Amino acid sequence: MVAVLLGWNPGVGDTWPGYSRVADELGAAGVYRRVWPTGPGTGTGTGTGAGAQPEPGADAWLLLHGKTGSGLIGHGVVASAPYLAAGPGLEGEPRTCVDVDFDVLLPLGDQIPVDILAAGAPLTDWSAAASVASQVVPEDQARAIRDVWAESLPADEMDPVLPVPGTLPQDALVRVGVSRYERDPHARRVCLAHHGTSCAACGFSFEAAYGPEGEGFIHVHHLVPAAQLGPGYELDPVGDLVPLCPNCHAMAHRRRIPYTVAELRAMRSRAGYIGGSVVSQQELDAQADARRILGST
Ligand SMILES: [Zn+2]
Ligand SMILES: [Zn+2]
């Protein structure tokens, strides 16, 4: 899979007002969608280079340049096919654009400097790439960028259950069963509105254990391994997502095909723990649905 480099000069035009605020809030929201111009108004060429159009699912790397500094400052995933759009930051004629779901935006100043990029991924002309809004790079360069990112990124604030965004190929993310559905803020809200915020496997409630500061905190786990999802799959936030505490969530992901909630409960029961909560009919139905989708019994 190719990747796309998105050049961004904060000093030219009004390309991304409020970047710092968005970067601050991204940790809580998980993903931030933004329209990005990838070419002029006509044609959607394929291949690589400036003017070529990235495919949905490709890694998108935000490259800062200009007076503010230069370097690799963010990662996202191309979330749409190219389309024509006019709007904020896109002056004059409609231009070819894609939606990008950004999942990491480093604070201005924390970018990975160009000399480190150039040493780790010498295949790309970084200065030239930063000066165009969009440039598609081939697979070998995409891999080199991913490696530099994985080595240089401060991983301190990242969720230990999930790999740091951008450090694995997108198709490998599917293979290891880690799902970006777990980071979709809308799906999360719907799931928790239905299931509540206690762990579906052990019953742990952060509010009960930590008081008001713990209210609303819980991980959300996707019951259906992403590898099993067909191309037409649409997320059902109530049936396909469950709240899990970070302990149970980490245990669920200890197996490549995640352990089911029923398996986690059985583990705890075998280990001597009495189940901490009564399973609701909805939870049982959701688990039955997940097993059906998985083709097991
Ligand atoms: Zn738990
Ligand atoms: Zn999970």
Q: Determine the number of helices (DSSP H or I, runs of at least 4 residues).
A: 10
The fraction of residues in strands falls at 15-25%
Q: Which structural class is indicated by helix and strand composition? A: alpha+beta
Helix content: 25-40%
| End-to-end CA span | 35 Å
CATH architecture of the largest domain: Roll
Task: Please count the beta strands (DSSP E, at least 2 residues each).
Answer: 11
Q: How many domains make up the 3D coordinates?
A: 2
Radius of gyration from CA coordinates: 21 Å
**Biggest sheet descriptor:** 9 strands, mixed
State the order of secondary-structure elements, H for helix, E for strand: EHEEEEEEEHHEHHHHEEHHH
Q: Which segments are poorly predicted (pLDDT under 50) over 5 or more consecutive residues? A: 155-161, 172-178
Mean pLDDT: 79
Cofactors, ions, other ligands = zinc ion
3D architecture notes:
With 297 residues, the protein is an alpha+beta fold. It folds into two domains: 3-161, ph1033 like fold (Roll); 176-294, no CATH class. It contains ten helices and eleven strands. The protein is elongated, with a radius of gyration of 21 Å. The model is unreliable at 155-161 and 172-178 (pLDDT under 50). One zinc ion binds next to strand 10 and helix 8. Residues 199, 201-202, 204, 244-245, 247-248 line the site of one zinc ion (ZN).
